[in-house]
Amino acid sequence: NRSIAEMSTGEGKTLVATLPVYLNALSGRGVHVVTVNDYLAQRDSEWMGAIYKLLGLSVGCIVNDMNPTQRREQYNCDITYGTNSEFGFDYLRDNGMAGRAEDQVQRNYYFAI
């Protein structure tokens, strides 16, 4: 509902986000989980991904060295982890450099946590 919550380092964002990520992913429109670095994106997608996969959802992770095909696969998951910069630069590439729709990697935007 267009709300923002802020939590400091070590306050449990990974665990607190689990339910809102899951509930929003049930809509089938995709959820972006934003982290500050590739390490946290990979770690959290593995840690929490095990739970989401048990619940029948797919989980992806965007990291710096992926090619467009790999990125597209990850964005097509129910839940996609990545950094603010990766999400931002993919948006800029999709809306500036991608001349054709099939060259874009991101799906439509609905939820970011």
Short description:
The chain is an alpha/beta fold and 113 residues long. It has helices at residues 13-16, 18-25, 38-54, 68-75, 84-97; strands at 31-35, 59-61, 79-83, 111-112.
Report on this structure.
The chain is α/β, with parallel strands linked by helices. It is built from five helices and four strands. It has one domain (32-112). The protein has helices at residues 13-16, 18-25, 38-54, 68-75, 84-97; strands at 31-35, 59-61, 79-83, 111-112. Helix 4 (68-75) links the parallel strand 2 and strand 3. The model has no long low-confidence stretch (mean pLDDT 91).
SSE layout:
Elements: H1 13-16, H2 18-25, E1 31-35, H3 38-54, E2 59-61, H4 68-75, E3 79-83, H5 84-97, E4 111-112
Parallel strand pairs: 1-3, 1-4, 2-3
Count the E strands.
4
Biggest sheet: strand arrangement:
2-3-1-4
Strand content: 5-15%
Low-confidence parts lasting 5 or more residues at pLDDT below 50?
A: none
Number of helices, where a helix is a run of at least 4 consecutive DSSP H or I residues: 5
Output mean pLDDT.
91
What Rg do the Cα atoms give?
14 Å
Pairing-aware structural class of the strands and helices? alpha/beta
Q: What's the story with the biggest beta sheet?
A: 4 strands, parallel
What portion of residues is helical?
Answer: 40-55%
How many structural domains are formed by the residues? 1
Q: What general form does the structure show?
A: globular
The end-to-end distance, rounded to whole angstroms, is: 12 Å
Oligomeric state of the chains present here: single chain
